[in-house]
Amino acid sequence: MSIEQLTRAVDLLANQVGHWTPARWRDQGEPLHKLIQRLADQAADLSGAPRHDVPRLSDLALPDQLRVVVADLAAAAPPDEITSAAADELAALRHTLT
Questions:
Q1: Count of domains forming the chain
Q2: I want to staple 25 with a disulfide (CB 3.0 to 4.6 A). Which of 29, 43, 58, 69 is the partner?
């Protein structure tokens, strides 16, 4: 899977949740934050950087944090299997969020 396809998966998920209300974020935002953390850890591992906790700045910032973390992952030149797995996780989360 290409970086462009991964970026497309991010855009689809971010667009899906970008209009959520605070109550909806409170009920369903945690899975997205956990995915962001997993992707940030992968980016750190690939680039040789130390892992850091991704702060949950605000629920409304989560889509932007997702985009930044995926850009970091893409910059680390992940192998195809990591890119594909990340896109699959994004798609799976997208389908489970209501």
A1: 1
A2: 29
